[in-house]
DNA sequence: CGGAATCCCTGACGATACTG
DNA sequence: CAGTATCGTCAGGGATTCCG
């Protein structure tokens, strides 16, 4: 199973590439947002899948592992049968969340106008 | 020449997927940031390439066109020889910029800690 | 100078099947 | 339940060439 690359080759210190580009893959922001929205301390794997119905099970696993690697998420395995695994946001993730939520709010406000522009551009 | 997809199939109204995921490709944020950083009204194509040396000419073109489609950037062609084309951020882009800059600042603050976590995770 | 067109390839991602 | 393993696809992206 793969994970995304560790560092950008040409600009190893570029915060946009090394930190933001990683958060900006297809699913990461959505997973963080969903974990927060749940309003609980911890969320089970299956529950996340229900909240994001069109993510594949593989990509949910990979995304969570990558988020764990970068310290946004903790993964807790309870030695039960059947197994129970819970994911929770870290303190770091909570300092990021206001910015993410601001972005989402901005996107919501501008969605209609942007989609309209996009449609126009598409017809040309 | 391709451009990224227009709408997300399953959640056509999801602001994260339709607006943010588009901004979060490999180059868009960096181009917006670079246009802003230049501190001018308009920036020429070649100049952008110099500022982002490892972007290919094709991807710079595609990224700029997509940003134009979504109304973040204007493209002005001057009928000269040799041709001159200038790109500028729109008002919409300027309302987005504070959020982007906040994210970049956050990434800078947390870069060392995140990279450290990432390295540890990598060794396991 | 600022592209467009073409070719090509990697890796991100999905689907499916299997497992402790 | 929460994964891992395997395989296949294809779109994102690079390199190169050509053009007004």
TrEMBL record, chains A, B:
Gene source species: Paraprevotella xylaniphila YIT 11841
Location of the HTH hxlR-type domain: 14-115
Cited InterPro entries: HTH_HxlR, WH-like_DNA-bd_sf, WH_DNA-bd_sf
Residues spanning the membrane: none
Stretches assigned to coiled coil: none
Record-linked Pfam families: HxlR
Lineage, top ranks: Bacteria, Pseudomonadati, Bacteroidota, Bacteroidia, Bacteroidales
GO molecular function, one term: DNA binding
Alphabetized UniProt keyword annotations: DNA-binding, Transcription, Transcription regulation
Protein's name according to its UniProt entry: Transcriptional regulator, HxlR family
């Amino acid at each position: 199973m793969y994970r995304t690359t560790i560092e950008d080759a040409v600009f190893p210190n570029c915060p946009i590439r090394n930190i933001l580009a990683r958060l900006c893959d297809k699913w990461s922001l959505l997973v963080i947002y969903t974990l927060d929205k749940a309003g609980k301390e911890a969320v089970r794997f299956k529950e996340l899948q229900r909240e994001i119905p069109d993510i594949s099970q593989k990509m949910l696993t990979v995304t969570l592992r990558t988020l764990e690697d970068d310290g946004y998420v903790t993964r807790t395995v309870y030695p039960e049968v059947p197994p129970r695994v819970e994911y929770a946001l870290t303190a770091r993730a909570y300092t990021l969340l206001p910015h993410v939520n601001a972005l989402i709010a901005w996107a919501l406000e501008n969605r209609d106008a942007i989609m309209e522009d996009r449609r126009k551009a598409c017809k040309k």
